[in-house]
Request: fold
Amino acid sequence: METFRRVAIVGVGLIGGSLGMALRARGLAREVVGVPRSLATIGQACRRGAIDRGTIDPAEGVDGADLVVLAVPPDQIVPMARRVAPHLPAGALLTDVASVKAAIVSGIEAGVGTRGEVAFVGGHPMAGNEGRGVDAAEPGLFAGTAYLLTPTSRTPRAGVERLAQLARALGAVPMEMSPEEHDRTVARVSHLPYLVAAALMGAVGGAGPAAGPSLRGATRVAASPVAMWAQICRLNRAPIQEALRVFRQELDRLEAALADERRLDTLLEAARETRLRLGGSAGDPERG
Reply:
């Protein structure tokens, strides 16, 4: 793909820092500029190889950038987009990495999206770990993951293709869907697993010290920063509530099946086959 001249990453935490590392390691940008909240983070990000230079002034940071990535907390993305929009050069591509899309995309399109010379494309790399900040960043974080793109009828097609090319160059698989479909989808594949992990930790109680890899793996995401997840849950409340309703139905089916050996075997085998089709490592009953 064509190398970006200058990439500005606003918010140099786990995702922003990982993106900067990947861009620099893969030679996808001539320069990566970080725009964190604090001067201390600039030094950390430079030492970790996430950015070439940094500033805490968003207007200065996006100056001359042909790609601007908003990697701030979800509730700050729309205000930040409006703040930096007047300083973006013609032809710039603006995107974000938030895991909630409908409210964010509509909010940005209501303001920034009216500038025809700047293309905004909603984006969400399905990548992460339970760490926090640039110290938890990894250059290979996006490899082998889905990268969700959420264009609307107002989104320039060239911008979508450019972001899809970037996703592929990062080793990810771009997938397009509407902002609304995105929020319904991630409510089930991302937000629900987090809440289930939190519920599991609540159910474990004092038995935690006896836990093996099964519980530890299933609840890994529960160790993620609470402030971020609380924002996500509030912003995507309705789709998450629907996902929880469906999950309760599945729990009810399993509970009822405990009294019917054949039915229980059928349900568990169906779950196993679905998980195997998903790919990745299978569970090891000897270690769970």
